[in-house]
Amino acid sequence: MLARSCLRSTRTFAGAKNGAINFTKRAASSSSSGSTAPAQPVMLNIAAVASTAVAIGSIAWYYHLYGPTANAMTPAEEGLHPTKYPWVHQQALKTFDHQALRRGFQVYREVCASCHSLSRVPYRALVGVLLTVDEAKALAEENEYDTEPNDEGEIEKRPGKLSDYLPAPYKNDEAARAANNGALPPDLSLITKARHGGCDYIFSLLTGYPEEPPAGAQVGAGLNFNPYFPGTGIAMARVLYDGLVEYEDETPASTSQMAKDVVEFLNWAAEPEMDDRKRMGFKVLTVTTVLFALSVWVKRYKWAHIKSRKIVYDPPKVGDGPAPRY
């Protein structure tokens, strides 16, 4: 009996010792994991900040290389920067002023067409915007165009049709240079898109001729001073003067009025589809907004029973069920 009790007490002491050791290990492991737990979010924050800094630095470096506008000349040689004007047709919900377009086309025909061409504008594009069908046909028939070669190989002339394009004032570039002291008048079909500043530049150029060049300005032979033209020396002289054109609607034909009208007409010539594009864009935005609202409602309806449910863990109670078997 004494030996059995001694053996039993020895086993109890050994079990208590092992339990204490295991408890110490668990406590140490929990304390070590608790000490490293706060360090993990700090490392994640550092990594996020570093990656954000790298991304911003990459974007800044790319903009430094390719973002700024590359100027081929110095600002003095580039010309005076044009004033920003509030053009109505450039607003999102506004269209072209068709009366201004008709007046601008009249200015082009009576003033600009003697030197500049509109090779990308057909007569049919004028119908419904500037002219009626009969007016456009009559205007086209004022000019003659080449026909297809006949059986003898000769090319005859025919009156113009709506499918023809506005005629050029010169037969070729050489004839244009010869008539303008070596300067080639540019085609005006895309002039508002081909010049930096667009409408503002063209308007400032047409109205920017001073009466006399400023003191110290050097202008080459055969050139005219205009501060908005690159180099300030332009071959085209001033062409717009007050009362030069007599408008059909009796609008006062001041220099600024004629410049404004012809600039609006040239902007229409560069993008005649602008009104249709704005109209289509408004329709697309309206339909997209409705579809987005419907998609949000459908998503909330479909996911309502999933997002509103509650999952609760119900552990088994002690004492329920049959007693365990050993």
TrEMBL record:
Disordered: region residues: 143-163
Listed Acidic residues bias regions: 143-154
Catalysis performed (reactions): a quinol + 2 Fe(III)-[cytochrome c](out) = a quinone + 2 Fe(II)-[cytochrome c](out) + 2 H(+)(out)
Alphabetical keyword list: Electron transport, Heme, Iron, Membrane, Metal-binding, Mitochondrion, Mitochondrion inner membrane, Respiratory chain, Translocase, Transmembrane, Transmembrane helix, Transport
InterPro entries in alphabetical order: Cyt_c-like_dom, Cyt_c-like_dom_sf, Cyt_c1, Cyt_c1_TM_anchor_C
Cofactor(s) it depends on: heme c
Protein name: quinol--cytochrome-c reductase
Annotated organism of origin: Apodospora peruviana
Lineage: Eukaryota, Fungi, Dikarya, Ascomycota, Pezizomycotina
